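BUG: 3D viewer hangs when loading the predicted structure for this chain

Environment: internal workstation, default settings.
Expected: structure renders.
Actual: progress bar stalls at 90%.

Input used:
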Amino acid sequence: MRRDDDKKPEKEKKSRVKKGKKPHKNKPLGKKYLHYKLDGDKIVRDMHCPRCGAGVFLAKHEGRLHCGRCNYTDFKK
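Structure tokens produced before the viewer hung:
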């Protein structure tokens, strides 16, 4: 048993800064929206793959268009 006169010295309390809610940050849009452009009331789409169909876009490289899904390549002249 411990007596009142045998108390341990009190520790100093650490001052901590409480963390609150973090402010909301808008996330960047996905890259899929870069393939569509609005021209007035019309939607202009980039070239899609003729083998894979609509929804699979061709990557634009220097001098060629390439499909990463089926490896279709269209060379520009």
